[in-house]
């Protein structure tokens, strides 16, 4: 028998949801999808949120779900999260953008004295 069981996982996931009236997880399929997605993230290099005796990514992902470290979001919640992240990214300029503008201004400022010197040299001769 698998521990925790699908039923136990569904109860834990639904009890950790922000909306008490609407269950986040309605089927075993939802649990399997969430666990497999998290396991893929761990395989890709994401840091596990729990210590678990097994080093198998799927076992770690199931334990994270069971302990409430990972939340399952509905499609609407996922879209809201992505929209807010996109809005935050648009408000904060990238570091490279500002740095590029400053360096252009510096090169123009550095070029001006050099041009003046050249002009002064040619006038003296």
UniProtKB/TrEMBL annotation:
EC number of the protein: 2.7.7.6
Gene Ontology cellular-component annotations: DNA-directed RNA polymerase complex
SUPFAM superfamilies linked: RPB6/omega subunit-like
Reaction(s) catalysed (UniProt annotation): RNA(n) + a ribonucleoside 5'-triphosphate = RNA(n+1) + diphosphate
Protein name: DNA-directed RNA polymerase subunit omega
GN (gene name): rpoZ
Nucleotidyltransferase listed as a keyword: yes
Pfam families per record: RNA_pol_Rpb6 (PF01192)
Role, per record: Promotes RNA polymerase assembly. Latches the N- and C-terminal regions of the beta' subunit thereby facilitating its interaction with the beta and alpha subunits.
């Amino acid at each position: 028998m698998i521990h925790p069981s699908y039923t136990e996982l569904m109860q834990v996931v639904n009890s950790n949801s922000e909306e008490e009236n609407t269950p986040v997880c309605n089927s075993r399929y939802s649990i399997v999808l969430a666990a497999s997605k998290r396991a893929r993230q761990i395989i890709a290099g994401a840091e596990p949120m729990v210590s678990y005796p097994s080093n198998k990514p799927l076992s770690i992902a199931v334990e994270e779900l069971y302990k409430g470290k990972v939340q399952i979001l509905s499609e609407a919640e996922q879209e809201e999260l992505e929209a807010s992240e996109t809005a935050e990214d648009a408000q904060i300029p990238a570091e490279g953008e500002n740095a590029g503008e400053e360096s252009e201004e510096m090169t123009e400022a550095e070029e001006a004295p050099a041009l003046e010197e050249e002009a002064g040299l040619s006038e003296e001769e």
